[in-house]
Each structure stands twice: as structure tokens, then as C-alpha cells.
Specification:
124 residues, alpha/beta, four-stranded mixed beta sheet, three-stranded mixed beta sheet, 25% helix
Length: 124
């Protein structure tokens, strides 16, 4: 009888540990995606060209090319001005939405930033 009780307690403790670990893992996944993101600018474009972040995130674009580039959108909510080679531009996004942007020096160079609310980032 004592062995069965010990076995049952052992199973309950193990299941509890697994549940707590999964909960912590899910929460750390969601929070880690909400702080900063980086985009590289080269002569071939923005990398990544498409990026998803949550509201409150800061995105930093770094010019890794030998020519000036910009991060600009038609609405005017993103306007880096010229980003010199080796320099960066950062912006924090407080409003959810889809931000299509381009390089004013090369309008064929485009990117998209999708800013979501924390609750819409999904889970498991």
C-alpha cells in the first residue's frame, strides 16, 4: 500500500513539474519576441524582408552596404532619412498594423513589418 501511495505521489509531482515547465516555456517564448528585432540593409535588400513583432518592440535597421539607404513608408510614420554605411536607425512601434516600407534611393527595395498585439502572437 505504501508503495502505491509513493508511486502515485511521484507521478503527481512529475506531472506538476512538466505542466509548470511548459507554462514557463510558453510565457518566455511570447515575451522574448516582444523586445527588439534587427534588419540588415545590403545592396540586395532588407534582411529579413518580412518581420513580425509585437507592439512595444523596437526594430533596428543597420546599413551593411557601402551606399546610403533609407527606411521610408508612404504614410510617413517611418522616415529614417539617409542611413550612412555602418550606421543604424531604430524605431519603437506602439501601434499594431502592417507597415510596408522601401528605400527612397531604390524603390524596388521593399520590406514589410507586421506589428501585432501581444495576445495575437499566438501560442502553442
Amino acid at each position: 500500500m505504501k508503495k502505491r501511495i509513493l508511486l502515485l505521489l511521484s507521478v503527481l509531482i512529475t506531472v506538476s513539474i512538466i505542466i509548470v515547465s511548459c507554462y514557463k516555456s510558453k510565457n518566455s517564448y511570447n515575451s522574448s519576441s516582444s523586445t527588439t528585432a534587427k534588419v540588415s540593409i545590403t545592396s540586395s535588400g532588407y534582411s529579413p524582408a518580412s518581420l513580425n513583432v509585437v507592439m512595444g518592440s523596437t526594430v533596428t535597421w543597420t546599413n551593411n552596404d557601402n551606399a546610403a539607404h533609407t527606411v521610408t513608408n508612404a504614410e510617413g510614420s517611418i522616415n529614417s532619412g539617409d542611413i550612412a554605411p555602418g550606421s543604424s536607425y531604430s524605431k519603437t512601434f506602439a501601434t499594431a498594423g502592417t507597415y510596408n516600407y522601401y528605400d527612397a534611393h531604390n524603390t524596388n527595395m521593399t520590406g514589410v513589418l507586421i506589428v501585432t498585439t501581444a495576445s495575437s502572437t499566438g501560442g502553442y
